[in-house]
Amino acid sequence: MTQNPILLAGGVLSAGASLLHLAVIAGGPAWYRFFGAGEGLARMAEQGSVTPTLITIGIALVLAVWAAYAFAGAGVIPRLPLMRTALILISAVYLLRGLVLVPAFVMNGGAFEPFVLWSSVIVLIFGLAYAIGTWIAWPTLSGR
């Protein structure tokens, strides 16, 4: 059993998000719209463009790598290169993306667009899992 269930949870969240991105490709334009990818990508998907698919696969791959780093940090898979640096950067990206909520709130006069609200809260949860999990695992993350 892992000694870091919080970082393990972060990995599961990232892996789930990666799989969801692949499901969006399979779901087509309606899924691109529903999950907030934007009307432009949805229209390109309707027209048969490969661009939305390539972008979405790229995001899915990044999320899968991030999941692997969380799993490695949790001790579930072997150690990966630059563990500390990667986990800090992943935490920062998730937390900064989640904090988009603050300027969005200010710029919209105290109102939230539903997608911005729920996506920011979800990504903040991911970021907190990575940040707290990394903090807990810190002593074991050194390559030495």
Task: Supply the key terms.
single chain; mainly alpha; globular
Describe this structure in words.
This protein has 144 residues and is mostly helical. 74% of the residues lie in helices and 0% in strands. The chain has seven helices and no strands. It has helices at residues 5-27, 29-34, 39-46, 51-73, 83-98, 101-107, 114-137. The protein is globular and about 50 Å long. It starts with a helix and ends in a 7-residue tail after the last helix.
Give a short synopsis of this structure.
This protein has seven helices and no strands. It has 144 residues and is mostly helical. The two termini are 23 Å apart.
Record field, number of beta strands = 0
Strand content: under 5%
Number of helices: 7
Question: Spans of 5+ residues with little confidence (pLDDT < 50)?
Answer: none
Order of helices and strands: HHHHHHH
What structural class do helix, strand and pairing data support? mainly alpha
Mean pLDDT: 92
Judging from the principal axes of the Cα atoms, what is the shape? globular
Which percent bin holds the helix content?
Answer: over 70%
The main β sheet shows up as: none
- Rg, nearest Å: 17 Å
End-to-end distance: 23 Å
